[in-house]
Amino acid sequence: MKLDKRLDKELDKGAASTVTKHSKAYWLPRVYRPVIAGKQVDNYCVRMSCGGLQRSLSLRTPNRETAAQTARDWYVYLSTNGWAAFDATYRGMTPAPTIRTPRAVKFRGVTVGDFLTAARNESDLAHKTFDDYARCLRFIVSELRAMTKPRSRHDYRNGGRKAWAAAIDATHLDAITPDQIRVWKRAYVARAGHDELLRRRYTVSCNSYLRRARALFSKSKVIAKLRTVKLPAVLPFDGVELERRTDTKFYGCGVDAVTLLRAAVDELSDHHDSVEMLKVFLLAITLGLRRREIDMLEWQSFDFVAGTLRIMPTKWYQLKTPESASELPVEPEVLELFRG
Predict the structure, then answer these.
(1) What is the DSSP string of 222-246?
(2) Does residue 122 contact residue 227 with C-beta atoms inside 8 Å?
(3) C-alpha to C-alpha distance for 148 and 192, rounded to whole angstroms
(4) Is the C or the N end of the chain the one with fewer CB within 10 Å?
(5) In this predicted model, what pLDDT tens digit does every residue of 1-50 receive, in sequence order?
(6) Tens digit of pLDDT for each residue in 80-129?
(7) What's the rounded Cα separation, in Å, for the pair 7 and 9?
(8) C-alpha closest to that of 325 among 339, 338, 314
(9) Angle between the 127-148 and 196-214 helix axes, to the nearest 10 degrees?
């Protein structure tokens, strides 16, 4: 087992700068033929982990290339849907029915952890969206705790992340008031001092944290769905407004896009291992695709005759919003690069 973990680390180092887990090339060196009773079996296997659970899976083929492609497809589905759905889809296993028993409603002493558990299980938020919002809420609560009890640089090292998260989750929700949030946001932006450019960045970050954490208390999508906790009458973000941005004009990043594009093509197109990186770069800089849109894009999205690329739901990808579906024109030079 130690040897396997060491091998995985070495493979990760070698692949970190070239391919991702959504690539067949990533899984090619990771599929293996196990040895049972001193004899190597014919079919390839692979180890995968999700949600803290690692399993060895038979890929049901003696062909290494086919095994790597299967491993790639399985990982994409597993990382999106979890083990239960994976077993039902690929292993022919029907998940055991879960019997839900009514839980008592918690009226007093509701903590941040109680609220987040209820919101994750009972609200209409997608789990990926919820995790992002919960991270922002925990960050703000940790900042509020630090304002009343300054942290030592050894706190995290001594207690570890679990202890840090447990302390935040144990914070009573009614102890987080809108006035405290207002004090925090002013203090957060004030860290920029008199540097106007830095102040603009801090304001953007502050508003981003506020907007996402505040979304956890949406009356229609979250609060109205909760059944196991009773929230205080005054919620943490009631009446808290975003910081005003005095200047929203974009002044450029200081790099000429055409020069950057040519340099990327020259540097990345000469090496076979860098082709995936070039694809990501082109899709991002020329079409402005989101990271997940790029990761989950399929060749069928390209229309080489019409010169367009379609953003649409697929087996592996669900649109962030219905408005995300679109058909984008692709420059002929970029289209030729992808055709090649």
Answers:
(1) TGGG--SB---SS-TTTTPPPPPPS
(2) yes
(3) 21
(4) N
(5) 444 555 455 545 444 445 678 888 889 999 999 888 888 888 999 999 88
(6) 888 888 888 887 765 555 545 445 567 678 999 999 999 998 988 888 88
(7) 5
(8) 314
(9) 120
